Amino acid sequence: MTMPINKELIITPEKVSDYKGKVDPDWCPGCGDFGVLNSLRRACLDLELKPHESLTVSGIGCSSNFPGFFNSYGMHTLHGRSLAVATGAKMGNHKLNIFVTGGDGDGFGIGGNHFTHTARRNVDLTYIVMDNQIYGLTTGQTSPTSRVDMKTKSTPFGSVEYPFNPIPSAIMNGATFVARGFSSDTKHLTDLMKQAIAHKGFSFISVFSPCVTFNHDNDVPFFRKRIRKLEDDNHDTTDWKTAIEKAMMWEDTIYTGLFFHNKEKTDLGHLEPVLSDDVPICQKPTALTEEQGKNILKRMM
Amino acid sequence: MPSDNFDFAMAIGGAAGQGIATPGNILARIFTRRGLHFNAYNAYQSIVRGGHIFLTTRISNEEIYSHGDKLDMLVCLNQDTMDRHLGLMGEGGIVIFNSDSIKPGEAATGVQLCPVSVKEISGGSRNKLIQNTISLGVILSLLKMDFELLEQALTLQLIKKGQEVVDENVNAAKAGYEYAKENFQVHSETVPDGLKPKALWTGNDALAMGGASAGVKFYCAYPMSPSTGVLHWFAKNARDLDIMVRQAEDEIAVANMVIGAAHTGARAMCATSGGGFALMTEAIGAASIMEIPCVFINVMRAGPSTGVPTKTEQGDLWQALGASQGDFERFIVAPVDALDAYNIIPEIFNLCDVHQCPGIVLTDLLISEGTFSADPDAINFQPEIDRGEQVTEPSSDSSYLRYKRTDSGVSPRAVPGLEGHVHVVATDEHDENGVLISDEYTNPHTRRLMVEKRARKIANVVDKIAAPQLEGAENADVTLIGWGSTSGVIKEAIAQLAEQGIIANQLAIKWIVPFHVQAVTDIVNNANHTIMIENNYTGQFFRFFRGETGLNVNGHIRKYDGEPFMPHHIVEGVKEQLTEKTNHFVPTQEIMV
Question: Residue B550 contacts by C-beta under 8 Å, 6 or more apart in sequence?
């Protein structure tokens, strides 16, 4: 029996592999998530991010095992709740650079409510969803992004439900950086991640990350044939209407790239009066001052 | 109660929207500034306009622990109040009502009816709330108190609305005051003066203030009666106290945001009621296995499901005990009154920080929405703060183990941002290093060691908690056992029983987890007759008590109609049981609200 290896983590990374976590991924060989993991490692190296200054938060699912494979502080939380935990962590210490990683079921199914509200609040974090249009860890059931007619273990005669499209949804909910990537194009994905991390506000990257075991509809060739980059079409990233139109396309052409970018909207941390002194609340003095106590009592008398 | 004791209770009744809260607050201020002890219970419904609201306020020069049994004065703002409550008034009682719109019913002998024509006295004012102001004048006059007290209080309350509003109200109150002086008989007793002024708070204020004193820097909530007052206090005071307050999309987000903030090292807290608490339970288990200290308050209301949103109950004990799947480390405490609710927050935060697990505060509407006086010197704004074993120095190697198996079970805690301590916390079972043992290879040995490590953290924690003590006479005829908010009303029932020659004492339980099994067992084994008193149907605490101690009790008094116990309910129940008429007494609520 092989046990997980407790490797020493690298404190000052100099190469991509220095961003490896304490254990190696347990994903199926050929899983799209490897491309996403490698892209984030490369993006962090290029941006010279120190592992201890970042916190990676995930929910539950194949892709939510991500924090264990990545060299940063990590929280492997509950199914669907990563964005809520990450919002609390960002508010607790806004100096942390926060990544949230997970899948389509975690983010758009059980966690859909938090997806809406984290976008609306414009919390300064980077949310990377590895969308494989299937539930993998539970061995292949329909997901919120599964297409109509898709045959899965829970829809053996084909799904009768319509899929959720996260890109228009994120834009309409107020996300300020909305992009789509493809796990097999790591160079493009790394570039999107670097822009997302640099963005001040809620940055969202939905990544087509094919499941090689349970989804035989949306495999790598399916995407390769259809994918077209927005930047090759001179897309205006400030135009939300065109962004939504292009995001809705799903037949011969499927767009990847940066759909929408709003640099004007202030992020939650900068709107929060308690953070106007830039001191994280986790570092503020715990005890009340005598003056504060007296003032509270005065109002009670 | 001794006969030289001033003990006066008054009720104001009307519909929601008739503005009962304002005269209630003004009277509370006047009485507590005069140094009187104050206890108010507001019976209301889940409605913004209409329905029936009945605010009972009791004042005394001695400590009082409940809203009491009797009414000395009834103020009717509508016919409904007159119809429902006139029957409660006995000899010496005073009933004040607007004779323009309310017809008095058949009053008992010795009840003084005080009709006041609001139209005449106000000179035909169109202000619908003017009857409240006039009533205040009448009340003060009948209590033989100086008008200046009311003038000051009205000015303070209304000055924000301008001098014109102040003048209109002061004049109306004065007219009411003078009218009563000329036309009605004053109350037989005199309101004591010259006592040390008291502070005034609600239980929700106390819970929030306890959080502020404990160093809560992140408070998060989704509004839910009867816990919303905690959110309101924090929201109002957040900027002065440098506390971040967030209203989230649901209680699931609330609990998880609290966990996220707590993980960075900030003290974080939330409050809700049973329905919201249900949504939080998965997160409570997550905090427990990730070993993140944070505090969850459940202000109980009558359940199940939406239940009776504005009524009280002690019905969520088993929900709190089972607030996660699996075996999970957590503390559970049920404060006995508002001051205790205040003090318990820093205390439970210290326990949570030292033992790295979540804490649950179980309180109820009776405490949370009650308004109480407090001795200002009894409120300690600088409680002891113990953050537990923390790692604060950066390290140049990466040998740190977040879940190191120590003798105490407690692993020194490093928070994100600290160099050289990078680790992952996980809701999956994990090893000392935070590496999952649940996916690729489950390791039964590691699993067992981790379960035992976490359990070890709280194995002996009961020694750190004060053991419950018998209150009152030793070797009493009967020992009354309650938990949480019933402590005060039981204390008053014991005083009434003593007047009737029955010697009773009380075992008031506050800490549920950890539970002082030995101390409780000793007390119960030495008691002559034991009666368990709870605000629920199934005897939730009794079943817990029996499970922990293996003991039984002689009888039960249970109430589950939404209204809290009044002292005489318990007195009746004890008497019925001591004469062996029953061993299970359910009092009838006389006041229909």
Answer: none
Its domain, for residue A101, covers: 16-300
Distance (Å) from the alpha carbon of A116 to chain B's nearest alpha carbon: 9
B29, B239, B257: best to mutate for the A interface, most A CBs within 10 A: B257
Chain B residue with the nearest C-alpha to that of A274: B242
Contact B256 A85 (CB under 8 A): yes
- Collect all residues of chain A within an 8 Å Cβ-Cβ radius of residue B396: 11
Q: Domain range holding B520?
A: 467-585
How much is the CA Rg of chain B, to the nearest whole Å?
26
Residue in A273, A284, A294 closest to B217 by CB: A284
Q: Please report which helix (H) or strand (E) contains residue B41, including its range.
A: strand B37-43
Burial of A40 (0-12, 13-18, 19+ CB in 10 A): buried
The verdict on pTM exceeding 0.95 is yes
* Beta carbons of A114 and B249 less than 8 Å apart: yes
B349 → chain A, closest CA residue: A286
pLDDT tens digit sequence for A25-70: 999 999 999 999 999 999 999 999 999 999 999 999 999 999 999 9
Same domain for B394 and B362, yes or no, is: no
Q: Are residues B139 and B205 in the same domain?
A: no
Q: What does the pLDDT read at residue B461?
A: 96
Phi, psi of B410 (to 5 degrees): -85, 125
What is the SS3 assignment for A125?
strand
Mean pLDDT of B546-569: 97
Counted domains in chain A: 1
Q: How many domains does chain B have?
A: 4
> Span A111-130, mean pLDDT?
98
